[in-house]
Amino acid sequence: MAEIICTVDVVLLTLLDGQLRVALLRRDHEPFPGVLALPGGYIHPDQDGDTQVAAARVLLEKTGIVSPYLEQLATFSGRGRDPRGWSLSICYYALVPTEVIRLAGHPEVVLVPADGIAGLPFDHQQIVAAALERVRNKSSYSSLPVYLCGDTFTLPQLQSVYEALLGEPVNKVSFRRKIEEFDILEPIEGAMETGKAHRPAQLYRLKSRYRNRLSLTDRGLGTG
Amino acid sequence: MAEIICTVDVVLLTLLDGQLRVALLRRDHEPFPGVLALPGGYIHPDQDGDTQVAAARVLLEKTGIVSPYLEQLATFSGRGRDPRGWSLSICYYALVPTEVIRLAGHPEVVLVPADGIAGLPFDHQQIVAAALERVRNKSSYSSLPVYLCGDTFTLPQLQSVYEALLGEPVNKVSFRRKIEEFDILEPIEGAMETGKAHRPAQLYRLKSRYRNRLSLTDRGLGTG
Q1: Is residue B59 part of a domain?
Q2: Cβ neighbours around B149 below 10 Å, total
Q3: Out of A160, B39, B53, B89, which could bridge B62 as a Cys pair, Cβ 3.0 to 4.6 Å?
Q4: What's the domain count of chain A?
Q5: Has residue B185 got a pLDDT over 50?
Q6: pLDDT band of B82, cuts 50, 70, 90
Q7: Are residues A21 and A127 in the same domain?
Q8: pTM of the model
Q9: Taking CB atoms and an 8 Å cut-off, how many pairs form between chains A and B?
Q10: pLDDT one-digit tens code per residue, A140-180
């Protein structure tokens, strides 16, 4: 039977200047050498326990980043997507604060605005579009956007992350009620954000047991 | 590099006696010969355009069924799930009226209650659980359950399909409003369901352009 090329690709998203960006790397080999593409690579059955482990390994090897949130998106496949032959890629998406990418310090990582992205090789454009749809959809009813914040943040900062993702203003009262329902944040005692024009705001962090989990609500977040 | 076993599996769901059931087949070869399992098979790169095509082919070959709704669920993978070696299965789920399974007439297809299913080989139990979660979640905000109905149905029949899936009563008024918003059904002129104790009810069918698509609502269906 003909061989199937088995790879993983990762859509690593971050928020920079209020804009969702995707981390790309210039490919260093055929096909498409020198072209910006998603970080990806072959599955190594001798090394990877499963495809999730493969995706985390590839992300670390190519970008130096460990993402606390890494979720399977979908599998893209077929005869036409890779000039080397029939291939499938199990795709994942990850969300990290830009700080994490900066600290990893890989000079090759380029952060490109995710909306309207073009010129990617293979079917990477479709993969990015699918990731954006998933992230926006999931943000409307879950705590997912928290993974785009740094270790500590104020509620107004978190609200603006939600608004940047959803692309519309969020009602402050229902936003705060939902965040309270999620019960995933804890105030950092005595820590206030100061030095701004506004009055000091309480700093929060994710409760430690939620660092890898999502909280869901069965209703929307009260956008509009 | 070690070879990866690439397969597809299909969770074919139907509603029988108000209960979600999954179609299983007795395996006719190693591993697990004689054991009931999901219909599945190898991807044939020489034959299948992509994994979706592979899943439709395998479903047809093993059960005689063409499902108008077939969606990718997730990819299950790893070293431990198949005794033959490192494997991955791109899993799909399909919804059909029981009538379609009966007409396909494959005597080997067994319809087993999906909730609390046990004794399946590989990680098929996990796959069925993931499919149930997806279908129930999606049913709460989309027209997905329509695919479990026959060609024609009344609104009370459709409502009872939603209720069987969601496992709770649905408010009739908000249910009808949502179905109207979906705008996917058309009344069949002059066709009424008669011969029941209740007064005759209008028969509906899916508009032809929606036979393969879902309609979504951004709010729930008003359960409870």
Answers
A1: yes
A2: 21
A3: B39
A4: 2
A5: yes
A6: very high
A7: yes
A8: 0.90
A9: 71
A10: 888 899 999 988 999 999 999 999 999 899 999 999 999 99
Query: Are A90 and B79 inside 8 Å of each other by CB?
Result: no
Alpha carbons B140 and A221: distance in angstroms, whole number? 17
A191 residue type, one letter? A
**CATH code at B68?**
3.90.79.10
Q: Say yes or no: A41 and A132 in one domain.
A: yes
- Greatest alpha-carbon span in chain A: 68
Cβ pair B49:A78 closer than 8 A:
yes
User: Do A78 and A188 belong together in one domain?
Assistant: no
What is the arithmetic mean of pLDDT over B96-106? 92
Q: Can you give the residue range of the structural domain that contains B44?
A: 5-138
> Is A217 a domain residue?
no
3-class DSSP string for A4-59: CEEEEEEEEEEEECCEEEEEEEECCCCCCCCCEECCEEECCCCCCCCHHHHHHHHH
Domain-embedded: residue A62:
yes
Chain A residue numbers touching B50 (CB-CB < 8 A): 77-79
Given this model, what pLDDT does residue A220 score? 52
Evaluate whether residue B9 is within a structural domain.
Answer: yes
- What is the ipTM for the molecules in this complex? 0.89
CB contacts of A46 in chain B (<8 Å) are 1-2
Shortest Cα–Cα distance, A86 to chain B (Å): 6
Residue B188 has pLDDT above 80, yes or no: yes
Q: Is the pLDDT of residue B57 over 60?
A: yes
CA distances, A146 to each of A110, A152, A162, A165, A200 (Å): 22, 10, 9, 11, 21
What CATH number should be reported for the domain holding residue A185?
1.10.10.10
Examine the domain organization and report whether B121 and B174 are in the same domain: no
Banded pLDDT at B124 (limits 50, 70, 90): very high
- How many C-beta atoms surround the C-beta of residue B29 within 10 A? 7
Taking a C-beta distance cutoff of 8 angstroms, is the pair A152, A191 a contact?
yes
Residue B224 pLDDT: 38
Query: Which residues of chain A have a CB within 8 Å of the CB of B85?
Result: 45
pLDDT-based confidence at B2, cuts 50/70/90? low
Residue linked to tokens 């500590």: A152
Same domain (yes/no): B113, B177: no
Final residue of a structural domain among A81, A110, A138? A138
| Residue contact A51–B3, C-beta within 8 A | no
